[in-house]
Amino acid sequence: QSALTQPASVSGSPGQSITISCTGTSSDVGGYNYVSWYQQHPGKAPKLMIYDVSNRPSGVSNRFSGSKSGNTASLTISGLQAEDEADYYCSSYTSSSTGVFGTGTKVTVL
Amino acid sequence: QVQLQESGPGLVKPSETLSLTCTVSGYSISSGYYWGWIRQPPGKGLEWIGSFYHTGSTYYNPSLKSRVTISADTSKNQFSLKLSSVTAADTAVYYCARDASGTLPRYYFDYWGQGTLVTVSS
């Protein structure tokens, strides 16, 4: 299985909104509503931000939202803050009942 | 509060077997949920290794399946990872984590260990 494709980097100014894409195939992202997103700060373990495409775990800011269209899922961060600067990874369930992560996106707050 | 802690050798020789243990506190691994291993080579992205359920159901990354075994010691509330025939490409931070999905794996990892760096080198 191949890693899901994400842009290497995305940047934005404080207060702006940014969107990170995650492109897979009909055997993973496009075939199931089992896409999740993780935030990872340097030297730290990843943190679950979104699951089931668009659901937020308790405690995650509503500035983070997820969506999906066809084989591409997206994570939008609105009202960008300095603390949002981190690496972000998508993940999906696959038709083989296995999991696959995205290539990762570095978010920079200008 | 669910907590996970990885433990094991930080240095493994090429061709040998990497063995790590994840000790879980705050939740019994026999009570449910899938539990998994994820790794991250230095400066690179996350890679799912495999997940297991206490009933014995396991799923492995196809690219690693021939070398990976995940098992559990429910009496100690621990689960372990064994990766055989390691090479330098297996050098990574290894994380254990809980899959929040429930009785079927959906790969929503809500609790993570801090990670442990394993270096493969002679």
Could you name the key traits of this structure?
heterodimer, A: 110 residues, three-stranded antiparallel sheet, B: 122 residues, mainly beta
Can you describe what's shown?
The complex is a heterodimer of chains A (110) and B (122). Chain A is built from no helices and nine strands. In chain A, strand 3 and strand 4 (47-50) form a beta hairpin. Chain A is 0% helix and 44% strand. Chain A is an all-beta fold and 110 residues long. In chain B, 0% of the residues lie in helices and 49% in strands. Chain B contains no helices and eleven strands. In chain B, strands 2, 4, 5, 6, 9, 10 and 11 form a seven-stranded mixed β-sheet that branches. In chain B, strands 1-3-8-7 form a four-stranded antiparallel β-sheet, with no helix packed on it. In chain B, a hairpin with a 5-residue loop joins strand 5 and strand 6 (58-60). Chain B is globular and about 40 Å long. The model of chain B has no long low-confidence stretch (mean pLDDT 96). At the A-B interface, strand 3, strand 7 and strand 8 of A face strand 5 and strand 10 of B.
Number of helices of chain A: 0
| Number of E-state strands of chain A | 9
Please give the oligomerization state of what you see.
heterodimer
Q: Which shape of chain B, going by the Cα principal axes? A: globular
Number of strands of chain B: 11
The largest contact between protein chains, plus residue counts on each side, is: A-B, 26 and 25 residues
Mean pLDDT of chain B: 96
Main sheet overview of chain B: 7 strands, mixed
Radius of gyration of chain B: 13 Å
Runs of chain B in which pLDDT lies below 50 for 5 or more consecutive residues are none
Largest sheet of chain A, in brief, is:
6 strands, mixed
Evaluate the radius of gyration of chain A: 13 Å
Q: What are the low-pLDDT stretches of chain A, counting only 5+ consecutive residues below 50?
A: none
Q: List the total number of helices of chain B.
A: 0
Q: Fraction of residues of chain B in helices?
A: under 10%
pLDDT averaged residue by residue of chain A? 97
Question: Could you tell me how far the N terminus lies from the C terminus of chain A, measured between alpha carbons in angstroms?
Answer: 35 Å
Portion in helices of chain A: under 10%
Structural class of chain B: mainly beta
Distance between the termini of chain B: 39 Å
